[in-house]
Design a protein that fits this description.
The complex is a heterodimer of chains A (341) and B (293). Chain A has 341 residues and is mainly α. Chain A contains 13 helices and no strands. In chain B, a hairpin with a 2-residue loop joins strand 2 and strand 3. In chain B, 74% of the residues lie in helices and 3% in strands. Chain B: Keywords: Amino-acid transport, Cell inner membrane, Cell membrane, Membrane, Transmembrane, Transmembrane helix, Transport.
Chain lengths: 341, 293
């Protein structure tokens, strides 16, 4: 068994320390009300979007399959989780984590149902099937009585209260960190390498003895599960959900985050999910022009950087420090403190 | 009788899908791009009709012609500005797709800025008394929709199979590299394809305005998606396939409206799509291509 190198341990420790520091700083700022609820809501939404983007990155970046119905999995998770906490009379601190798992499992199940037949298809046809699935799920949610039709579910309790301002943040933050960690380890694991091999050449992968159906399904269901959990978080974060919140535009929004950051690059997804959540809020002053500006930025990035901002490379703190150390001349240290290594 | 008139109603609506599906199909055939901005071209065409006919009070034929011309040019301009660079540099196809989504968002928001987000009402354009045909009533819009779409398809088929530019289009979609070696200017051909597709979408827009009383900046979204479903259903890349898909979709929609529930229309449409793709992944009339190692 190959031992973990000293450098790797150091990198883990450093990143863990940064993550904890980040958590302590932000949660203190929130509970001291230095960051008001408007901004803390944006931070939570940003983290939820990061979870979604990273999960889609599993399928689109790692497996190389285009998915246009990610919001459908999110919808399943959101409704399952919200229905659970609305109907089960348990204290929220108990029912919330169970609801998240139920949301994730429900989404994973729908991922299995759509994935088994759909993954036989390739490329654009798979994309179209997932698009169709997302739309059907939305229409069904619009017509069932248990989902309360187009009015949706409301009165979903949030973990936040007047005494506990960071309840949601804590959950969302650590789930985001866990999902990111999971993706990094998955990408370098045996299973992850098999998935990447399928992306590079499916026929060659199959010829080398990789069970392509199994691995495609694995990545697909894992992504669906995470999207379901994110849906559960989303439902409890905003308190009311209706089917129109999970339409085709939502799916493309998540896809844009992945592609803009660089397909297959987890840090790229994180950065672009963060920026794309903040950007519309920051542009609120130009409310009429903000979507116009957003689309122009999108087109320009794609035109001049077709592989996304980071391409397939990852941003790593240790790597950057190394690079800076090696670089001749006193280049200033890069400021952005990222949690990955 | 009720059943038959529902079928004919469906064909009328399906004609609009069919015309838009043709554009999706041709563009996909030539550059393998799901052109998500295509649905919004219908919206552009509809607003062009609105501007010329209602705001400027000009005659109808000018509105129709103007809208077609405007959309055709818009299609070429969009191709040149947004897609050309990516096509030339052989960028990953998903980047092209994201650019198309970007163009779609851009068009929707541009028109929202220009005309406001509230719907604009359209006057009836071509009206004559409904035709009675053995107990079935054919409304004027149904007759016009079906006949225009059939004429358009025949014209397009002729263009693609007989004319020089049509042959260039087929050659480029078959093998762009080889087409280039044969002296075909693939860039012009691709731009022309976008132009023709958009012009057809404008025809679809005129029919849409004649059938439905209102237009709004986001009207292209779902309409475009459904037309795309029609293109896939019939076999993407095939002209008769796109027409067949459009008609089928229209009939399925009007059947669901009449006999099941109008709330479930979209679910039925996408359900049919999924079933067809699972049974025959290349669509009803699509060619089966084997992947070589």
């Amino acid at each position: 068994m190959p031992g973990i190198s000293k450098k790797k341990i150091l990198s883990y420790v450093v990143n863990l320390a940064i993550v904890l520091l980040l958590y302590v700083v932000i949660s203190t700022l929130i509970s001291r009300r230095i960051i008001n609820s408007y901004y803390s809501d944006i931070i939570n939404m940003m983290l939820i979007n990061i979870i979604l983007a990273v999960s889609l990155n599993l399928v689109t970046g790692l497996l190389g399959q285009l998915v246009l119905g990610h919001a459908g999995f999110m919808l399943v998770g959101a409704y399952a989780a919200a229905l659970f906490t609305l109907n089960v009379k348990l204290p929220l601190t108990v029912s919330f984590p169970i609801a998240l798992i139920i949301g994730g499992l429900a989404a994973a199940l729908s991922g299995l149902i759509i994935g088994v037949p759909a993954l036989r298809l390739r490329g654009d046809y798979l994309a179209i099937i997932t698009l169709g699935f997302g739309e059907i799920i939305r229409v069904i949610a619009n017509n069932l009585t248990i989902t309360n039709g187009a009015k949706g579910l409301y009165g979903i309790e949030s973990l936040n209260s007047r005494h506990n301002l960071t309840g949601m943040f804590t959950y969302i933050f650590f789930i985001a960190v866990f999902v990111i960690f999971l993706n990094f380890t998955f990408g370098t694991s045996r299973h992850g390498r098999a998935v990447i091999a399928i992306r590079e050449d499916e026929i060659a992968a199959e010829a080398s003895g990789i069970n392509t159906t199994y691995y495609k399904l694995l990545a697909f269901i894992l992504a669906a599960f995470i999207a379901g959990v994110a849906g559960g978080l989303y439902a409890h974060q905003i308190g009311l959900i209706d089917p129109s919140k999970f339409d085709f535009n939502r799916s493309t929004e998540i896809l844009v985050m992945v592609v803009l950051g660089g397909m297959g690059s987890i840090t790229g997804s994180i950065i672009s999910a963060g920026v794309l959540t903040i950007l519309p809020e920051a542009l609120r002053g130009f409310s009429n022009y903000r979507m116009l500006l957003y689309s122009i930025v999108l087109i320009c990035v794609m035109l001049f950087r077709p592989t996304g901002l980071l391409g397939r490379s990852e941003f790593s703190l240790m790597g950057t420090i190394e690079k800076i150390r090696n670089a001749v001349g006193g280049k200033k240290k890069k400021t952005a403190a990222k949690k990955e290594g | 009788m009720e059943f038959l008139s529902q079928v004919i109603n469906g064909l009328g609506i399906g004609s609009i899908y069919a015309l838009v599906a043709l554009g999706y199909s041709m563009v996909y055939g030539i550059v393998q791009l799901i052109n998500f901005a295509h649905g919004d071209i219908i919206m552009v065409g509809a607003y062009a009709v609105f501007v010329i006919l209602v705001m400027m009070n000009l005659p109808l034929w000018l509105a129709v012609l103007g809208s077609i011309l405007f959309c055709g040019i818009a299609g070429v301009v969009i191709e040149r500005v947004a897609y050309h660079r990516l096509l030339v540099h052989d960028a990953p196809r998903i980047s092209l797709l994201i650019t198309a989504i970007g163009v779609s968002i851009f068009l929707q928001n541009l028109y929202q800025l220009l005309f406001g987000s509230d719907p604009k009402s359209m006057p009836k354009m071509f009206t004559f008394a409904p035709l009675q045909l053995g107990g079935i009533q054919l409304t004027s819009s149904t007759i016009i929709n079906i006949s225009v779409s059939v004429v358009m398809m025949a014209g397009l088929q002729l263009l693609v199979s007989k004319m020089k530019i049509g042959k260039a289009m087929r050659a480029t979609s078959e093998d762009a590299g080889a087409a280039k070696l044969m002296g075909i200017n693939t860039n012009t051909t691709i731009a022309f394809t976008f132009g023709i597709g958009s012009a057809l979408a404008a025809v679809g827009a005129v029919l849409y305005c004649n059938t439905y009383p209102q237009i709004k900046p986001v009207m292209g979204g779902l309409l475009g998606l459904k037309a795309f479903v029609a293109a896939v259903l019939g076999g993407i890349g095939s002209i008769p396939g796109a027409m067949l898909g459009g008609y089928l979709l229209g009939v399925a929609e009007s059947m669901t409206n009449a006999y099941i529930s109008s709330n479930l229309t979209d679910a039925v449409v996408f359900g049919i799509l999924i079933i067809v793709l699972l049974v025959k992944p290349t669509g009803l009339l699509g060619k089966n291509t084997r992947e070589k190692v």
